[in-house]
Amino acid sequence: MQDSILDKIIRVLTPILVYLFANLFAQAGFTSFVMATRFKALGGDRVSYAKGFSFVENMEIIVKANTLTVTLIASVITIIVLLYMFRKDFRSIVFVKPKSGFLCTIAVGIFASAGISKLVTLFPIDGILGNYSETSSNVFLADVPMQILTLIIVGPIMEELLFRGMIYNRLKEMNESTIAAYLSAIIFGVYHLNLVQGIYTFILGFLLVYVYETYKSLAAPILLHMAANAVAVVMNYLPISKVINGHWYFKLPVMLVEIGILVVVTYFFVYNKNKKDNVMQQ
């Protein structure tokens, strides 16, 4: 018996709802922990109780100041729940031995992150939908180990399980691969809740789908995603990067070089893949 369109739509939405509830749970849990700690420190009199309510009113600020902590908790919960609930799916889409040569996706991730991010930030679009500058500032408030753990390791694993492993594959049950790639990339962009990151991750989403389809294993897009995020973290601490990004006449030529290298690397990546496929078919 074939699933109805409604059933297929529900299958696409379910992983998204899992993440949303995990994120809500992480925020509520973190908030409760901080509130309990603060109330205990304040004591139990009425004045302390009033101060506690003042603290609650500012919880949004507290959560923003601990963005990566909340993100890490939500990501870990999402990974655990997805692996358990959808273990039958993951036998076919995750635990597949990747083909040789997938390490070259790291190079694609490096230049995609550097070049595309500069391209997007050349235009005065920040603040139109969401605020990338504020989001970036909140993220980099955390210490470096937390940034590495969340942005470079756990975050990419969770997002690839969610967006390529679950959402993209389930969209393919409803549409052809190209349409599924478009839709999953759009969802991936909207997920980041600001226009700058949305455009960047929309483009990155296509690359991630391509390497996933090429190697038939989530190991490849996970590596690409980790490399892209690692570049973003490292560049945030390089003085030369701040100089380049602060002046368009520096940013533009550097961006063109980075995108040029990305195009060349991607071309050879595709060329070698097609060459190997032709050899295997002969």
Could you give a quick summary of the protein structure above?
The protein is mainly α. The chain has 13 helices and no strands.
How does this model look, in words?
- With 282 residues, the protein is mainly α.
- It has one domain.
- It is built from 13 helices and no strands.
- The radius of gyration is 21 Å and the shape is globular.
User: Unreliable segments (pLDDT under 50, ≥5 consecutive)?
Assistant: none
Give the DSSP E fraction (strand runs of 2 or more residues).
Answer: under 5%
Q: How is the biggest beta sheet arranged?
A: none
Distance N to C terminus:
39 Å
Number of domains: 1
- Total helical elements: 13
Q: What's the total count of β strands? A: 0
Q: Identify the overall geometry.
A: globular
Order of H and E elements:
HHHHHHHHHHHHH
Structural class: mainly alpha
Radius of gyration: 21 Å
Give the overall pLDDT as a whole number: 83
Q: Which percent range fits the helix content?
A: over 70%
Identify the notable features of this structure and list them briefly:
mainly alpha; 282 residues
Topology:
Blueprint: H1 5-42, H2 46-57, H3 59-65, H4 67-85, H5 87-93, H6 105-121, H7 132-139, H8 144-172, H9 177-191, H10 195-215, H11 219-237, H12 239-245, H13 248-281
Helix pairs in contact: 1-2, 1-4, 1-8, 4-8, 6-10, 6-11, 6-13, 8-9, 8-11, 9-10, 10-11
